[in-house]
Design a protein that fits this description.
Helices cover 39% and strands 14% of the residues. By secondary structure, the protein is of the alpha/beta class. Helix 3 (58-68) crosses helix 6 (200-210) and helix 8 packs parallel to helix 11. The two termini are 24 Å apart. The structure holds pyridoxal-5'-phosphate.
């Protein structure tokens, strides 16, 4: 059993994948080839956003976005400590200060009720993370941002395809950033990512930063990065995009099955709120005996993972950014355990996983 099974997916799309890769090899436009623009257009349609800018990774999507809105040294960006390091890393890289606000214990997303008291005159942006595939309370977060004139950047690296009220993740705030890292819900076979916005000015600046700050060829009007996505990776995402809506359906079905079972057994899990969906980049439960449960599942050849063992504000490189305490984040980091989750997880495997966890809990 795989934690995330990319092979079954690849077998299903092999012909289309090979056709698209061959096409790139034939035309030879490896950088900013036609597949880049085709993908950007299709992703704009998928998310109903006006602008999609593909980039070299999810991390670079966040970095370029922060650069585009003019984050400077000493500025503060409010975010969650319970995330992959990239979220805080890009803030610190620009000399800005990640201000960590604690999370909700049920969703593991940033607790919007704690954001306003973290706003200072230095605050420039809020960067909520749609953790495990589920958006945060974006409406409330956008309201706080409007009140204080802040920009909201959704770190949607894990939530591409998730719904929040009537909208799709990446189109829930000023800017949305996603990742096409292979294990993400929509992944490529290397590094890749995308920025989404409805703001033409921000889109134009992101495009220029992606290309070393060039307004036109060899004319560099701003400091930029080498942040382009490869044409080959775009071709791979294009191939996967066709089956993506049905893969999301499968993820929802498996997530529901897991949810119903764990609820019936009173096994604690990450909860989803009613006005949104999760695409379950991770399916995560809580356990007070994580190590023992991990070993029990390992004996049954069930792989697991921990997202995340340490909140970012406990990491040595980020400890100086700590202001207040984030006890919820500290606590859940000792209890979270992610289970196998991918669209091709069979019912038989799901049953085996659920039964094994039930047996452990009954001990
Ligand atoms: C929440 C979050 N933010 C940012 C990233 C960075 O994406 P990438 O690995 O494509 O740079 C990831 C990917 O692991 C992530 O999970």
């Amino acid at each position: 059993m795989e934690f995330i099974d990319l092979k079954t997916q690849q077998d299903r799309i092999k012909d289309d994948l090979e056709r698209r890769i061959k096409k790139v090899l034939d035309h030879g436009n490896y950088i900013m080839g036609p597949e880049i623009f085709e993908l950007e257009e299709k992703l704009e349609t998928f998310t109903s956003t006006k602008h999609c800018i593909t980039v070299s990774s999810g991390t670079d999507a966040l970095l370029i976005s922060l650069m585009a809105i003019g984050i400077n040294p000493g500025d503060e960006v409010i975010t969650t400590p319970f995330t992959w390091v990239s979220t805080a890393e890009v803030i610190a890289l620009l000399g800005a200060i990640p201000v960590f606000v604690d999370i909700e214990s049920s969703t593991c997303n940033i607790d919007q009720s704690k954001i306003e008291s973290a706003v200072t005159e230095k605050t420039k942006a809020i960067m909520p993370v749609s953790l495990y595939g589920q958006p945060s309370d974006m409406q409330e977060i956008n309201q706080i941002a409007r009140k204080y004139g802040l920009i909201v950047i959704e770190d949607a690296a894990q939530s591409f395809g998730a719904k929040y009220k009537e909208d799709i993740s990446c189109n829930l705030s000023d800017i949305g950033c996603t990742s096409f890292f292979p294990s993400k819900p929509l992944g490529c076979y290397g590094d890749g990512g995308a920025i989404f916005t409805n703001d033409e000015n921000i889109a134009q600046i992101c495009k220029e930063i992606r290309l070393h700050g060039a307004e036109s060829k060899h004319w560099h009007t701003r400091i930029g990065v080498g942040g382009r996505m490869d044409t080959l990776q775009a071709a791979i995402v294009l191939s996967k995009l066709e089956g993506f809506p049905s893969e999301i359906e499968r993820r929802l079905t498996i997530g529901d099955r897991y949810n119903n079972f764990f609820d019936s057994q009173s096994i604690e899990r990450v909860k989803q709120k009613e006005d949104r969906t999760s695409v379950f980049a991770q399916y995560t439960i809580f356990s007070d005996h994580r190590e023992k449960l991990t070993n029990h599942l390992k004996q049954k050849k069930i792989p697991t993972a921990v997202h995340y063992k340490f909140p970012i504000n406990q990491s040595p490189a980020y400890i100086n950014f700590c202001r207040g305490k984030t006890p919820v984040s500290d606590e859940v980091s000792t209890r979270v355990l992610s289970l196998p989750m991918h669209p091709y997880l069979t019912e038989e495997d799901q049953d085996m996983i659920m039964k094994s966890i039930k047996d452990f809990s009954a001990k």
